[in-house]
Write a structure and sequence with these properties.
Layout (H helix, E strand, L loop, with lengths): L1 H27 L16 H6 L1 H4 L3 E14 L2 E7 L4 E7 H4 L1 H8 L6 E10 L5 E12 L15 H6 L1 H7 L1 H23 L3 E2 L5 E2 L11 E4 L4 E5 L4 H9 L4 E9 L11 E10 L3 H20 L3 E4 L2 E4 L5 E4 H9 L9 H10 L11 H13 L7 E7 L8 E2 L2 E12 L2 E8 L4 H16 L10 H8 L5 E7 H9 L18
Parallel strand pairs: 3-5, 6-10, 14-15
Antiparallel strand pairs: 1-2, 1-4, 2-3, 4-5, 7-9, 8-9, 10-11, 11-19, 12-13, 15-17, 16-17, 17-18, 18-19
Length: 496
């Protein structure tokens, strides 16, 4: 294997040297492509192909990367790829002249060129540009992988996304859809009267979620700070300040494991609406997913990794305790104490975290162990134990539970919502328990946020809050198996 890698490296170095020598020759002739600062392109390949009747026999100027080339004596064909399509060009010595045609024949796959000529169809009915002039705009010194047969190494594709986008054009479509999905989410909320805001990424307290933060240091203040794990506590301060509906979409950072669902930095959106509760957030979540799917994909019945997912029909709504009962037969409504919960966990051979031996924690563990992966069609799981919901209002009918839900599709969580806790005394006590858990070794437990408590003491109206993992939503709507497939530059360990 090492010998093969060395041989490949030698081949690459040889091919690159040939291209470097070509560049030097051009520079000696006063034809350095890197001195060109602008090129007046009139149309893209996609525009021309979509409107052939309009462009037939008309002069156009296109530009793009050479991805195929056939030299046939005094006439040749090349194909370029631009931002949205590929288009063929017919290039002949009669049109370019001997010197320019000779120069064209030296161009390599990967070079970026501009072509001016008229649009026509070949005998095989392929829409093409009959070149009158060809300009080298940038020299590709590094050959594209496998002579443009495709970059197949998944790890290398993520590391070198720029090459992935060149040789696997369908990848670009995923990120075009990503942009459209994000735009539609924002449009939906804007139309519902929400105001988009910005809150700090750096803070002295990592709050709003159960997660391990990244730590950095502010030199001027000589102060350790955290990259945000959530923007919840700042957004709720704005509700205190008098905004009725706010949202923020942006990067969050969690110093945790990496897998097909998790990246250390990810895009999340949180929204808060005064005078609403978690039932309103359920309705909004369902309508948001359905509307975005229809507007971007044209349908709310989609395929995800071979499974038909129906976003159109009413989504199932079931309490966490009832969902556990459906799958396991265990009814936690009949289990009243921590000791009883521990016993049933032992009977079912469920491993319990030593720091989480309460009835509420065990209910949550049962759900994650037995239920979560069974939730294929869109399902709201609601009424979570208070132990795992430190920022959520308790249910008036059962103080052991909270008015919280998460939404699951294809065994994966996509959103988390609360009837927000607005009692500063209760919030302070729950923060204290989180601090105790943190001191006992739980690195994901919340920190005490005295300023947030102070904000609540001024009074926050009853509020519904919702967070959605945008990357996961995009994975679902683009049929992408891994979060890395929807991040242009996912976090990767350096090669060396």
């Amino acid at each position: 294997m090492q010998e093969n890698n060395q041989e490949q490296e030698l081949d690459l170095n040889h091919l690159m040297q040939i291209r470097i020598d070509k560049l030097k020759e051009l520079q000696e002739q006063g034809k350095d492509p890197f001195t060109i600062t602008k090129f007046n392109r009139t149309n893209t390949a996609g525009e021309i192909k979509a409107n052939f009747d309009k462009f037939e026999q008309k002069d156009v100027t296109v530009a793009g990367r050479i991805i195929a080339k056939r030299i046939m004596g005094k006439a040749s064909f090349c194909t370029i790829q631009d931002c949205d399509e590929k288009i063929q060009s017919y290039v002949s010595i009669n049109d370019l002249g001997e010197e320019s045609y000779k120069l064209f024949k030296t161009y390599d796959i990967g070079d970026i060129i501009g072509i001016t000529g008229f649009v026509f169809k070949t005998r095989t009915e392929e829409i093409s540009v009959h070149a009158k002039e060809v300009t080298l705009l940038s020299k590709s010194l590094r050959p594209l992988p496998e002579k443009f047969h495709g970059l197949k190494d998944i790890d290398l594709r993520y590391r070198q996304r720029y090459v992935d986008l060149i040789v696997n054009p369908e990848v670009k479509n995923t990120f075009i859809l990503r942009s459209k999905i994000i735009k539609e989410v924002k449009n939906y909320l804007d139309n519902k009267g929400y105001l988009e805001v910005d809150t700090p990424i750096l803070s002295t307290i990592a709050g709003g979620a159960a997660a391990r933060p990244f730590i950095t240091h502010h030199n001027t203040l000589d102060l350790d700070m955290y990259l945000r794990i959530a923007n919840e506590l700042y957004l709720k301060r704005l509700i205190v300040g008098g905004f009725d509906k706010v949202y923020e979409m942006g990067r969050m950072f969690r110093n945790e494991g990496m897998d097909i669902k998790h990246n250390p930095e990810f895009t999340n959106i949180e929204m808060y609406s005064a005078y609403e509760d978690y039932n309103d957030m359920m309705n909004l979540t369902e309508d948001l997913f359905r509307t975005v799917a229809k507007n971007v994909l044209g349908t709310a019945v989609i395929n995800y990794q071979g499974t038909e997912v129906d976003l159109e029909s009413p989504w199932k709504r079931i309490t966490m305790i009832d969902a556990i009962k459906e799958v396991t037969g265990v009814d936690f409504n009949n289990i009243k104490t921590d000791e009883e919960a521990i016993k049933i966990a032992e009977d079912k051979q469920v491993e319990i975290d030593e720091l989480k031996k309460t009835r509420g924690d065990i209910i949550n563990t049962f759900f994650e162990e037995f239920v979560e992966e069974t939730l294929i069609q869109p399902t709201f799981i609601y009424d979570y134990p208070v132990e795992v919901s430190p920022l959520t209002k308790k249910k008036p009918s059962d103080s052991r539970l909270t008015e919280r839900f998460e939404v699951f599709i294809c065994g994966r969580e996509y959103g988390n919502a609360y009837s927000e806790l607005n009692d500063p005394i209760d919030q302070y006590e729950r923060f204290k328990k989180q601090v105790e858990a943190r001191e006992a070794g739980d690195e994901e437990a919340n920190m005490m946020d005295d300023d947030f408590i102070q904000a609540l003491e001024y009074g926050m109206p009853p509020t519904g809050g919702l967070g959605i993992g945008i990357d996961r939503m995009i994975m679902l709507l683009t049929n992408s198996a891994s979060i890395r497939d929807v991040l242009l530059f996912p976090t990767m360990k350096p090669m060396n």
